[in-house]
Design brief:
Blueprint: E1 4-11, E2 15-17, H1 30-40, E3 45-49, H2 50-63, H3 71-82, E4 84-88, E5 100-103, H4 107-116, E6 122-125, H5 128-136, E7 142-148, E8 156-157, E9 168-175, E10 181-187
Parallel strand pairs: 1-6, 1-7, 3-4, 3-6, 4-5
Antiparallel strand pairs: 2-8, 7-10, 9-10
Helix pairs in contact: 1-3, 2-3
GO biological process, one term: riboflavin biosynthetic process
Protein name: Dihydrofolate reductase
GO molecular function: 5-amino-6-(5-phosphoribosylamino)uracil reductase activity
């Protein structure tokens, strides 16, 4: 069965966005972007909340064709074009979207159907609200976190309204030159 992995930048004090949803504190230099591109290149499905999806749609469809586009931009734009996108939203019009599936109801059933389909892991990109919804339903199977060397003090937390403990197993770590530390966890469902 495919796994749903939440991919997020996170502050040292556990925030994934600032007070107004800003991510200007997240370090996403070439070293990190290159590393992330390798892993997401192996993924065939991306899951987004509505806000993150609209942000991605505003940028990536044309980013690779810009005169100033780097090789990483071009490669990611090509990946974004071909990857199957799943969006959790009750307001997006599902008729006008290519290679995009909108889930607006029956979340557990629909997500489990997708997890049963052949393919690679499903990556949730950012999307704190979507991640919170999936976490409450015990549908997140892992966390791919990039811990940034900053304390925000307030904003949107990753782990909120958790009713029970979530035991995690560390798969690997990596330290980047900019001070960001990658932590790759899988949910230990044996407990």
């Amino acid at each position: 069965m495919r796994k749903i992995i939440s991919f997020m930048h996170i502050s040292l004090d556990g925030f994934v966005a600032g007070v107004n949803g800003e991510l200007d504190w997240a370090m996403v230099g070439e070293e990190i972007f290159s590393h992330v591109s390798k892993r997401i290149g192996e993924s065939d499905t991306a899951l987004y909340g509505r806000v993150t999806y609209q942000m991605m749609e505003d940028y990536w469809p044309t980013a690779g064709s810009q005169p100033s586009a780097s090789k990483l931009d071009v490669d990611h734009a090509k990946w974004y074009e071909k990857v199957h996108k799943v969006v959790l939203s009750k307001t997006i019009d599902r008729e006008s979207l290519d290679n995009t599936e909108i889930i607006s109801d029956n979340l557990v059933e629909r997500i489990n159907e997708i997890k049963q389909q052949p393919g690679e892991d499903i990556l949730i990109f950012g999307s704190p609200s979507a991640t919170h919804s999936l976490m409450k339903l015990n549908l997140v199977d892992g966390y791919w976190l990039f811990v940034n060397p900053i304390v925000l003090g307030q904003g949107t937390r990753l782990f909120v309204d958790i009713d029970e403990r979530i035991k995690l197993k560390l798969l690997n770590t990596r330290q980047f030159n900019c001070g960001v530390t990658e932590l790759n966890y899988i949910v230990d469902k044996s407990v």
